[in-house]
Amino acid sequence: MIVAKRKPLDEIKEMLKPYNKILVLGCGSCVAVCMAGGEKEAGLLSTELQMAFEMDKTLPPSGGTPPGSAKQIDTITILRQCDREYIDEVKDKLVQYDAILSVACGVGVQFTAEVLNGEKVLLPGLNTTFLGATKEPGMWVERCLACGDCILDETGGVCPITMCSKSLMNGPCGGHEKGKCEVDRNRDCGWVLIYERLKKLGKLELIKDIKLPKNYGAVKRPDKIVHEAYQVVGKEEVKK
Length: 240
Ligand code: SF4
Ligand code: SF4
Hints:
20% strand
């Protein structure tokens, strides 16, 4: 899943200052799992913002700081902001606001803006950080950099690009100590993890294979995938 964390409240507040009718748009998928932008988090953020702007209104206009103006802050959460059908369901409501603070990942923010065809200001409430997994309740760990040319079959299911601090393809670099990485001694050395995994799988011979330099051109950014059942032949969409 995509893992993200909320931006600091002051940064969000600053972005929202010019707008009076604001919608906090939650996303019920990845960012709900990592407790950054789901229905609950969108609601909490909306309340925090409301209180913060209310407090600004009561501040004396000293030091050249103007008192805040009245804000209306509402919340809607849809299942996925990266899926047009869910955005379309609430499109009529979205266009009623001066600005939409999306607490989805960067994909959701951009895609919602795209569906709204640039009619509304879309602002990011989260910092999107990585593709990861839930290691334990409340802890998410990065596991994939979406390189587009997966080699997990050669490395015992441990990604050297993500798990090695230097993304070495034929590691280790020699700087590891007691299984820890020289870049950060609190982190496991990715290549020690690969070695241990291959050993456990009885496939240690794989570590001797020299891997060619990674083809980072495997993905042309921004990439696009069209399922074969939806490929267009001429002007006609063919569904197999
Ligand atoms: S090799 Fe690593 S970065 Fe590339 S797709 Fe596989 S897990 Fe992701
Ligand atoms: S110590 Fe291990 S994880 Fe760290 S950079 Fe070297 S090979 Fe990569």
